[in-house]
Amino acid sequence: MFDDQINSLTAEKNGLQSQLNDRDEQLKGLKSQVKDSDELTAKIDELEKSNKAAKEKYAADLSAQQESFLIDKALTSAGAHNNKAVSALLITI
Questions:
Q1: Total-model pTM
Q2: Distance CA 20, CA 22 (A)
Q3: CB of 3 closer than 8 Å to CB of 72
Q4: Which of 30, 65, 75, 84 has CB atoms 3.0–4.6 Å from 80's, for a disulfide?
């Protein structure tokens, strides 16, 4: 059960990382082609910053999701009957 979730998350992470890398490469290529236009260069810089922020948010979300899965796995291994309730109690501690 958890292995399937981990494999699914890993595949999703790899797909999204690939998309972000492709966008970054496209922006770099476009930036090198149009060095004459300051406005376009500024827009590309803005898009690069946006991509960086999206990468950071994605990494934080993925980390939180992985942490949640690990906690659920540990609670299941420990014999918890209601992982959601136990997790809520752990958060309040």
A1: 0.56
A2: 5
A3: no
A4: 75
Which residue's entry shows tokens 């949640």? 68
Query: 39 lies in which domain range?
Result: 2-92
pLDDT averaged per 10 residues in sequence order, the chain, 93 residues: 75 82 81 72 82 85 84 88 84 68
CB distance 51 to 27 below 8 Å = yes
CA distance 75 to 87: 8
Residues present in the chain in total: 93
Cβ(24)–Cβ(49) below 8 Å: no
Name the one residue in this structure whose structure tokens are 């490469």: 25
Domain count, the chain: 1
Is-contact 58 44, C-beta < 8 A?
Answer: no
Token representation of residue 66: 């992985």
Report the SS3 class of residue 37. coil
